[in-house]
Design brief:
- There is one protein chain.
- With about 350 residues, the chain is of the alpha+beta class.
- The protein folds into 2 domains: about 200 residues; about 90 residues, 2-Layer Sandwich (Alpha-Beta Plaits), CATH 3.30.70.
- The chain has 10 helices and 8 strands.
- The strands form 3 sheets. The protein has a 4-stranded antiparallel β-sheet, with helices on one face. A two-stranded antiparallel sheet has the order 1-2.
- A hairpin with a 2-residue loop joins strand 1 and strand 2.
- Helix 2 packs antiparallel against helix 3.
Length: about 350
């Protein structure tokens, strides 16, 4: 039989009601209602992103089907003119432009999804709940004034590297093979260039134009590699380094097995906090993160006065919580976060003799 709530507990709940997230025309939105609203928004943005993702696949399928049909026609009969391959190249280029535009729309919805994943849901999984301060403003700004998060060049370069660059290379190789093999192999280079001519355009000029076109595409694919504003890709939230790293050379996994299926672990970091409020900062880290802290006394060379250096080992998912904990107690503290090769002990990999 279920027990009735005690009067003391009921009274405590009445005396200390849950603080509303915000109010509007008499409506009080509680924390649970806010989370529910975020869940529905998350599902809606995922649906939108999936729709545009399917459109990306459709455009790529058009390019693949058109290329396969063109090559089948070009090599099935010797009297088919080689210009059909060049026309298909222009058609595939147009498909690439269409897909780049669709990719920008996909990134608009994917940006919101990724923002909620990294700054809202990930913060819920790593207590205490400390979302990034600017995540709500960024999401609200994207909802109120939508804009493409990536440029046309980044979208063009990403789709080119993923799929279309290989299609263009196949078409280029097929065009050269068509000129060389049909109706028979040319006797010399001059005859080969004569076959490449189309109307008033000479064979040498057309060959130079086609080669220049493919070189240009290659340069665009290489030049846009450093553009990483696309959130739909698998990119880390904090910093440019990956959230996981391969095991060290001294690990148990070695040889071919380590190269094929290397085990990965979360990145381990070492934080150095230089502060004048060592006790307060240490207590805050212990209570909020549950991580041990080691203190080293020191003296400031420029600011003067005694300072304490706190060392704390943590993982990449705890960096934001560490910054929040330190700033609450000492906003003037100096924090250095650097990667650690390997951390052994409580809270990490057990310290074992190998």
């Amino acid at each position: 039989m279920a027990k009735k709530p005690s009067k003391t507990r009921s009274k405590a709940r009445q005396d200390d009601p849950e603080e509303p997230v915000w109010t509007y025309r008499g409506y009080h939105l509680q924390t649970g209602e806010f989370v529910t609203a975020m869940v529905h928004l998350f599902r809606a943005e995922i649906q939108r992103a999936n729709v545009w993702r399917q459109r990306l696949d459709t455009t790529t399928n058009w390019a693949v089907v058109a290329t396969g049909a063109t090559l089948s026609i070009a090599f099935s009969q010797s009297n088919v003119h080689h210009a059909i391959i060049l026309l298909n190249t222009l058609l595939v280029l147009w498909f690439l432009f269409i897909e780049a535009r669709r990719y920008r729309y996909y990134e608009l919805w994917s940006y919101r999804v990724r923002l909620m994943e990294t700054d809202f849901y990930a913060a819920m999984l790593v207590p205490p709940f400390h979302p990034s301060p600017e995540w709500a403003e960024n999401l609200a700004e994207s909802l109120l004034t939508p804009s493409f998060p990536i440029s046309v060049w980044e979208a063009f370069g990403r789709r080119l590297r993923r799929n279309y660059l290989w299609i263009f290379f196949i078409l280029f190789a097929a065009w050269i093979a068509k000129l060389w093999l049909f109706p028979a192999s040319p006797a010399n280079m001059e005859e080969f260039l004569q076959r490449a001519a189309i109307g008033p355009v000479s064979g040498g000029g057309l060959l130079a134009l086609v080669v220049s076109f493919h070189i240009f595409l290659t340069l665009v694919a290489i030049g846009t590699i450093t553009m990483t504003r696309a959130t739909g890709e698998v990119l880390p939230r904090f910093g440019e380094d990956s959230a996981t790293v391969a095991p060290s050379a001294g690990g148990k996994t070695k040889g071919l097995r380590a190269w094929i299926a290397a085990r990965q672990r979360r990145r381990q970091l070492l934080a150095l906090i230089i502060t004048a409020k060592a006790q307060a900062v240490s207590n805050r880290i212990l209570s909020d993160l549950g991580r041990g802290v080691t203190a080293i006394s020191g003296k400031g060379m420029y600011t003067g006065g005694d300072r304490t250096v706190l060392m704390c080992a943590l993982t990449v998912t705890e960096v934001h919580n560490l910054k929040t904990a330190v700033s609450r107690e000492d906003p003037q503290a100096f924090v250095i976060v650097s990667p650690a090769q390997e951390i052994l002990g409580r809270g990490f990999k057990p310290l074992e003799e190998e």
